[in-house]
Amino acid sequence: MTNERNISIDVLPLGELAANCYLVAKNGSNKVVCIDPGAEGEKLLAYLKDKEFALEMILLTHAHVDHIGAVAELKKCFPEVPLVLHREEEIALKDPERNLSCFFSEIITLGGADRLLEDGETFEAAGLNWTVLWTPGHTSGGACYLATDPITSEQALFTGDTLFKESIGRTDFPGGNYEALLKSIREKLLTLPDHLKVYPGHGDDSSVGYEKEFNPYARLC
What's the number of domains the chain is made of? Predict the structure, then answer.
């Protein structure tokens, strides 16, 4: 668990690709947003139950198989909880080639999202304010999410497979575009405050300032 002073973040690396699933809440509240439930649905459901979390939203940074593999199990248990992602990414929920599940043992074909987001849109969930940063490049509809505590203005950034610690996402999958990814990182992420913590889709957390200094791709942006 990572605790900002007013934002609680539980990190569960799930599945054979160890994609980070984040359970994000306002400290002191049991309402959580689940970001990228990628696999091991039973483990995730048991964790929610053990922590007595109340699931309020399933939020996807993008719809690759390692980030959506447990969505169906969550929706089966919590049909009223909305599945939310960027508008440009919805097609991948239904297309095994675009979500890459056709290359794995289990084909994933999900129904549509309950809510589709636009670039720059803001919404409230789990007691926090969220801002959508559309960052195409890894996929056409990939998005990052900036969570803000409404009282203290403390923030956390969830980057999916757009930006990793000292690296960036692949661009050789359907909908990928290397130049678009660099543009997204340059214009949407590296312009944010240096102290802002970054929580990627795989690997360790980081900060905007750290990535500016140590990420080799930042020099190309």
Answer: 1
Distance CA 182, CA 185 (A): 5
Strand partners, 14: 19
Q: Give the CATH number, domain containing residue 132.
A: 3.60.15.10
Q: Which two tokens stand for residue 172?
A: 């050789």
Cα 147 to Cα 23: distance, rounded to the nearest angstrom: 12
Q: What is the pTM of this model?
A: 0.96
Question: Cα Rg for the chain, rounded, in angstroms?
Answer: 16
Distance separating alpha carbons of residues 17 and 25, to the nearest angstrom: 25
pLDDT digits (tens, 9 = 90+) for 132-188: 999 999 999 999 999 999 999 999 999 999 999 999 999 999 999 999 999 999 999
User: How many Cβ atoms from other residues are within 10 Å of residue 209's Cβ?
Assistant: 15
> Residue 71: which domain range?
2-219
